[in-house]
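Reminder to self: tokens first, then the designed residues, so the page reads top to bottom the way the pipeline ran.
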């Protein structure tokens, strides 16, 4: 089969979306079967790839397709509901959505990611326990310049920042939403999926 990726469309994408919906646990919403390989489909592919020890690139190639369910759902079969908390950082459309059991808890737009040379890392991550209400970057000094930091990949964090200014790899979320997201996250286990260009 051909590699399928963001922006593709058609019946074969519908088949992939259906397979993903029956492909085991997820913390993201079940996919609408619309044949559009959008940001949520990319995120579901990345989540599936990570949970199945595949390269996490958001592209459905032969290896990913080979691990997806090949038989369609049975009559009246419904996918299991999503369980747990997750955050989808969509840098295609500059928006962030926090999900609780697959339901939208917060939707924030616009946001921004890293500038050229400091691109935000795309992929699937488990948010670390490093969650700091007040924080200053040691690399780019400035008092409390990373308020409401939620670290998910090394030094990369979701934190309060101007969504019209690109960062040094972090995800900028405007006030007051950064604090709302921080309070929502609390100490719970959260999966973070970053997609986009």
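Designed residues (197 positions):
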């Amino acid at each position: 089969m051909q590699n399928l990726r963001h922006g593709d469309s058609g019946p074969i994408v519908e088949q992939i979306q259906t397979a993903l919906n029956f492909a085991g646990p997820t913390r993201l919403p079940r996919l609408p079967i619309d044949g559009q390989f959008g940001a949520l489909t990319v995120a579901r592919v990345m989540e599936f790839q990570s949970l199945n020890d595949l390269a996490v690139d958001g592209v459905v190639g032969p290896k990913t397709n080979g691990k997806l369910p090949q038989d369609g759902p049975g009559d009246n079969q419904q996918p299991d509901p999503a369980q747990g908390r997750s955050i989808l950082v969509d840098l295609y459309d500059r928006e962030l959505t926090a999900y609780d059991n697959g339901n939208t808890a917060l939707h924030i737009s616009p946001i921004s990611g890293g500038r050229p040379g400091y691109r935000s890392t795309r992929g699937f991550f488990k948010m670390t326990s490093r969650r700091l209400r007040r924080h200053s970057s040691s690399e780019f000094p400035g008092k409390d310049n990373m308020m409401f930091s939620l670290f998910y990949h090394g030094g990369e964090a979701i934190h309060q920042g101007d969504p019209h200014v690109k960062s040094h790899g972090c995800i900028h979320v405007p006030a007051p939403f950064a604090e709302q997201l921080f309070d929502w996250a609390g100490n719970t286990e959260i999966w973070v999926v970053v997609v986009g260009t």
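The mean pLDDT is 93.
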